Amino acid sequence: MTKEKAQQRRDQLAKMRAQQRAKDRRGAMLMWGAGGLVIVLLVGLVGFYLVRQSQLTNLDAAVSKKYEGSQHVWEAVKYEENPPIGGPHNNYWQQCDVYDKPIHNEHGVHSLEHGAVWITYRSDLPKAQVDKIKEIASTTGQQDFMLVSPVQDLPSPIVASSWGHQLKFESLEEERLAAFIKKFQNGPDTPEPGATCGGQYAVTTTADQAPLPPQPQPEATTSPSAQPSAQPSAEASASPSPSESR
User: Fold this and answer.
1) Among the listed residues 152, 94, 144, the one whose alpha carbon sits nearest the alpha carbon of residue 120
2) Which of 47, 82, 86, 200 sits in a 20 to 30 Å window from 120, CA-based?
3) Cβ-contact 84, 106 below 8 angstroms
């Protein structure tokens, strides 16, 4: 092989190697570019999910108001909000449960004082949404502190309430409703967090089934006969109210 041909062969081999290196670089760039694109897409998707989730669970629209607890009364109360979120309330609280008819506000407020979340809805709300509300109530938070019932003349189709807090819904927003339950059930503003929402003094009837309970009256006493040596009989004490017996 002549020197000229040997040089041509070396030049050709060098050219082939250069072409292979260029091809390898392009492959590496494509691989890293594709990997970077996947990473960017994943970061974007995660960011979008977090932003979207934050929007779906945002509770900035919730109304908050301060109310003092332990104001137990026997008469009917006229509340500022519908449904109420605090204030004077009946000595008996409503059993935390799901009701298909309205309950007395005075019992519901007492349940809020114990840490319950009260989900209310208009009586004409579509059954599918009512069923979904019941499902959320039975799977979110503490079921022992969950109260669900329809309310007459409700200002919005659905309203979630706790002691001092309320969020209105024009349509069912599952994530936001669940977020309200998790944040405000037995929350820091609850006057008596963790107090029972059941037990022997809990009311289990709806408003159409029973009126507000009347105030217990002291038992009548009989005066002893007028005898000099007789000791006066002890006055019979009234039965304690549920708020006194807790």
Assistant:
1) 152
2) 200
3) no
